[in-house]
Amino acid sequence: MIDAVVGIDIGGTTTEFGVVDRKGKCLKANSINTRQYTDLEEYLKCMHLEIQNIINSIYKDINIKGIGVGAPNANHFRGTIENAPNLNWKGSVPFVKKLKRYFPGWPVALTNDANAAALGEMFYGGAKNMKDFVVITLGTGLGSAFVVNGQLVYGHNGLAGELGHVNVKHNGRLCRCGNRGCLETYVSATGIRRTFFNLLRTGSAKSSLSGVGFQKITSEMIYEAAVKKDRLALEAFNITGEILGRKLADVTAITDPEAIFLLGGLAQAGNLIFNPTRNAMEKNLFPIFRGKIKILPSKLKRDSAAVLGAAALAWQNRD
Amino acid sequence: MIDAVVGIDIGGTTTEFGVVDRKGKCLKANSINTRQYTDLEEYLKCMHLEIQNIINSIYKDINIKGIGVGAPNANHFRGTIENAPNLNWKGSVPFVKKLKRYFPGWPVALTNDANAAALGEMFYGGAKNMKDFVVITLGTGLGSAFVVNGQLVYGHNGLAGELGHVNVKHNGRLCRCGNRGCLETYVSATGIRRTFFNLLRTGSAKSSLSGVGFQKITSEMIYEAAVKKDRLALEAFNITGEILGRKLADVTAITDPEAIFLLGGLAQAGNLIFNPTRNAMEKNLFPIFRGKIKILPSKLKRDSAAVLGAAALAWQNRD
What we know:
Chain A is an alpha/beta fold. Chain A folds into two domains: 2-123 and 302-318, Nucleotidyltransferase, domain 5 (2-Layer Sandwich), CATH 3.30.420.40; 130-297, Nucleotidyltransferase, domain 5 (2-Layer Sandwich).
């Protein structure tokens, strides 16, 4: 008999789930398409079936200790997913309550995707022996999670970690939240596209992407152009890293972390984003912090990180 | 027999100390002049004598359980006071180690003054039932302390809470830390003086303080002028509150506190500083936080707050 948990990561496109043992070994995993289910009950029914299937397909006897779920706009305290712009289910969804009906008797915990990523890093990744660290996820938006004294910072309303919405520029770029100048309008896959487009419009240098329409330019294409030394693409990465690094200097002044992890699509660009970020942070740090703060990539494999994070939440919920 | 602790608050000018019981009642207090002691041992000797005197002068039998010390630039982890610009003792002073020699057998804990203020507020003041809150001290500089899950945030190096050194303006005002544009160069007693002086130099309106030299203008004089509806003095308070409020919106996005307490000299200006701060914070908040975050004054009496904070640290150190 092996003790294990189920980790579920809900993304806008795909929902991934896996059965994970105490040591972070994913015994079996699968996924369903999130977008095809406009009806939440249909989605839960299908997920329940698929999870039962993978549990039954494992050759050993499995004792499931609980379920952990990572999702965008999740509220850990309330067990709800609230107004997630990339999901089909609108308003405040009592996700934990509904999921429990399909898995009676199993403890279910829910948290937002950045928090789940931080727990994954803390249980199984690069933050194993750390008590104070920050995780930044650079995807369509910018997510963040803060760990202090070995605990996730949830805050009074369960809404902490909205670093994507600190202000970079007064009356700056319009953000989907309604405010102007939020960090994620500059530092995210969407943000670097906006920066690159501005450079295309106003820049002195030519770019290999000059002839491509804005809507067709992805952050991956900017990355590929930068690898080929496209000057405007490189400049877009430098500007993005410069803005992020300056904010990480502020984050350090407040929380004094041992390390800051950069995760998600944009972080895959490696030194193109890490170098300008590190340089700008170091330059803007309150002097006593200089040389003390590490900016690191994830130590988890990209294809299993989200499920491992959700699994870590399930284990933590048992302890 | 009454259990009590000794709380010591070291300021640049005065060192205050008192004997405080479990409920936060200050049984007896006194102070010495910090500045007159260039030699640390002389200072400790005198303080030891005075503390013994007040303990002996209390009519009941007192069982001292420990000492708590709040001081500028204190490192809680190391028990040191490090390069405090307003104290006579330069370099890194092993304060706890030295103080213990005078009070053998008594546990001694040290923390910086903003952290001590937060503990005082949490044990005896307005944060009694709060687990997540922020304290901002507006004195010569800007100090801050963050409480998360009921615990002070010390960070990895014991240096967390340097909100005074987050950036407000790229290439802004020169700060004593060497960087430019730090929050405390705008929001502090010194900051409002710099703002007021800029307004005097460039402002369109006249001020009752126009004839007074810059070096002679204090933040108290600006306050008094503002109370009398001096337009430039009012504008200085509005600008200061606006900058602070915007930063508190960022602080909220990161930590989601129940309340933010404004303490110290500048906070004594009441609505002159609280109103523009509240308005600017609310306007710049990530929408989900609007209407949820309180900005509050201290609930402790100003003359005993610092000693009570240090006493709270001593009690916490025993628990």
